[in-house]
Amino acid sequence: MNVVSVSWGDHLTFGQGDGRLDTPDKVARRMRAWRDELGAVALHWRLLRARIPGRFSAARGFRHPSLAAARAIEWDDLALVPDLAHDAGFEAWLYVSLFDEGWPLPPPRVRAISHHNAMHWQHVAWQSDLTRAHPEWLVVDRSGRRRQWGVVSCAYPEARRAFIDRWLAFLEPTRFDGLFVCLRSQSRPADHGDQFGYNAPCRKAFRERYGLDPATDDVDVRAWRDLLGEYLTLLIGELREALAGSGRRLGVGVARGDVAGPPIGNMTLQWRDWVRRGLVDQLVVAQNSSQCPSMWHQLWPMHRGVGYVQNYLDGTGLPPLAEHLRAGYGPCVAGTATRLYVARQWDARCPETEQELRAIPGVSGFVFSSFRHDNPEAVARGDWTAGRIEH
Predict the structure, then answer these.
(1) What is the spatial distance between Cα 26 and Cα 34, in angstroms, rounded to a whole number?
(2) Which of 21, 62, 211, 239 has a C-alpha 20 to 30 A away from that of 179?
(3) pLDDT tens for residues 137-189?
(4) Is 390 within the bounds of a domain?
């Protein structure tokens, strides 16, 4: 009972043959392959960035490959993909991101030493209109001056409403069975695990609860991290309620562990509460924000950050995966309606490992990358366009 994660923008930009998925017929053929070769019974269809109101930008002599690919498509994937999926026997979930609102194009001197990825996102950028209109919603450091591009604080009720309204507007006219909210972020990592999150509503709530200001006083950092996590849980609860009328299900993808981890910080992930309260139908663990799931290029390799109490990149504070599933996640989902999946987009296929993990009580299956399965030649070459305009 596996899930296939379809980063359609990657297919359109870098895929080849049927692996480009640029026509409904190609999508239908590859769905049959995902079912037969990957054992998939559900798909997460990632929303194109070009559909979200925002601004694409590119340095002189470059063009944004994602925008060019999206403009070449003349059919409506949100209208057709659910029907194609249902015909192939799949559940169809619309894949959206929460902490991935983009950033403006930095100046050349910054891009030379600090960039998302030298292969495809060094000289191009995208930023949502939401964060351009409301930069105050971005998470901020103790000084109140530095913000983390792309990462919105869930402490603002208006921000939570804006995300829910956006997702419902995409979802409601379609036949998607559910909404998958991924907490992966492509934003530049925080320099320290407790660097961001000191927005005014968070500080006010902490002062009211504990009488201290986390930006200036010596506080219980665990209590502070838990408070930040409460706002994320609030969003998930509000989203669950908003979906209830349509009967659509909700899935959430998280890093392994009890904190958000790189690149966001030590904000608590209250995934046990999500399961206990019946807020999530799918819980996908072991997400990785620091590596491209399609081509495995490292993202922001010069900015790894320190001070994470749990860090999936080096294993800090985390047990081995099998042990974590057996002693932590598995018992939590036992007897509940939540299906537990393990993200495997960043791991080489290994039948022995997959057999071991699949046998752990509570594990429903794995999530695989459609791009890696469909485009082995591109993966072998490691060939990722830099978006330069050819003359």
Answers:
(1) 12
(2) 21
(3) 999 999 999 999 999 999 999 999 999 999 999 999 999 999 999 999 999 99
(4) no
